[in-house]
């Protein structure tokens, strides 16, 4: 989906980015630039480094090699609250806090701007109110978060990320555990907010069809390295299904929107994958 949002210079730039654990490398020298205004989808199998990349780029992990620059500054050297004013990260999951209302949870996103004492002040600031309104949860503000459905809760968590008022938004599997209706609702909300707020968005997605429809750029990771990078129409191919996702399948085109549509047929065993790497073009 090309939204027509103007793209600017790189606001996030990974240079030789590496990270791992003893005996288990996760990222192996990733070079990646993300321009202002882009909506980028990260795809790949579990363990390929997608979530790790987001945490490194948000300053939550320290790389073992290379660096990530936010507007030219090494994020690993920035104070935590400074980084949080530039990048908001919606984690894949978050522990529930019994008794917390929607309003109280969303106000947690104001920590970077207001500090721990400022968060205790009564009343919402303008940014919190806008975040509640932008995702359509103002009417639920005084409801307990625990009383919400999974889809409603994810919208509230998105509002909390927006309350950081950062120009860059990282979303780690924002549609996990949601039914199809709520997956589409969350993704369409992200696309709308990206345009309205002029955000740069990077989101980890497992569904390649969603990535092809909603992102204007797809970055595929395989074993800690970039295997493909480009617009969906160029990146989403039978070769990508085999090499990156380990499945044999077909790729068509949506009759209405024109974006690529994947039809996975069956998983490839390692020998099939090697043959596909040599013969699929």
TrEMBL record:
Keyword terms, alphabetized: ATP-binding, Cell membrane, Ion transport, Iron, Iron transport, Membrane, Nucleotide-binding, Transport
Lineage top rank: taxon: Bacteria
A GO molecular-function descriptor: ATP binding
GO cellular component, one term: plasma membrane
UniProt membrane topology term: Peripheral membrane protein
Chief place of localization: membrane
Compartment(s): Cell membrane
Domain ABC transporter: 12-248
SUPFAM superfamilies: P-loop containing nucleoside triphosphate hydrolases (SSF52540)
Keyword Cell membrane: yes
Biological process annotations from GO: iron ion transport
Protein name per Swiss-Prot or TrEMBL: ABC transporter ATP-binding protein
Organism the protein comes from: Streptomyces parvus
């Amino acid at each position: 989906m090309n939204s027509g949002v103007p793209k600017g210079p790189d606001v996030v730039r990974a240079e030789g980015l590496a990270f791992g654990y003893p005996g288990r490398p996760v990222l192996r020298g990733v070079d990646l630039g993300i321009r202002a205004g882009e909506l980028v989808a990260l795809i790949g199998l579990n363990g390929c480094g997608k979530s790790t990349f987001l945490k490194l780029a948000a300053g939550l992990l320290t790389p073992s090699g290379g660096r990530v620059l936010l507007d030219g500054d090494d994020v690993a050297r920035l104070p935590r609250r400074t980084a949080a004013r530039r990048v908001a990260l919606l984690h894949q999951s978050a522990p529930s806090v019994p008794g917390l209302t929607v309003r109280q949870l969303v106000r947690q996103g104001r920590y970077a701007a207001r500090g721990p004492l400022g968060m205790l002040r009564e009343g919402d600031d303008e940014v919190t109110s806008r975040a509640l309104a932008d995702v359509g949860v103002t009417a639920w503000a005084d409801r307990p978060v625990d009383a919400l459905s999974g889809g409603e809760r994810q919208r509230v968590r998105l509002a909390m990320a927006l309350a950081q008022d950062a120009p860059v938004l990282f979303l780690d599997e924002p549609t996990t555990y949601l039914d199809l209706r709520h997956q589409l609702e969350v993704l369409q909300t992200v696309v709308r907010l990206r345009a309205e707020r002029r955000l740069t968005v990077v989101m980890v997605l497992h569904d390649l069809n969603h990535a092809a429809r909603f992102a204007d750029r797809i970055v595929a990771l395989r074993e800690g390295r970039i295997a493909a990078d480009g617009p969906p129409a160029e990146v989403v191919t039978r070769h990508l299904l085999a090499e990156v996702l380990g499945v044999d399948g077909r790729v068509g085109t949506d009759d209405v929107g024109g974006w690529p549509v994947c039809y996975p047929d069956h998983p490839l065993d390692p020998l099939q994958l090697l043959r596909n790497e040599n013969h699929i073009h």
